Amino acid sequence: MHCVSIPLPTDCETEAGLSMWIYVFLGNVLRGIGETPVQPLGISYIDDYARAENAAFYIGCVQTISIIGPVFGYLLGSLCARIYVDIGFVDMGEYNSPVKCV
Prior knowledge:
By secondary structure, the chain is mostly helical. Helix content is 57%, strand content 0%.
């Protein structure tokens, strides 16, 4: 099979700033702070303050949500993967080629 390389124009891309990585880092830090106490403290709280006959149901709900949440996250991520990575940095109106600038 013969592969043909199509050169990409240099005006198709612009430099991304370092500030984007700071936003990703801060978002992950905030997410970690919010997710950390749910398992050890949330289950203890439910066990202490819920009625004995309802505690198992509530703990089951917390565990189910913690499993289903990442599933929806991966599904949403797969849908968002179809969007161009460089939104705002690449002007696709001027670039007519079968190769995508990603």
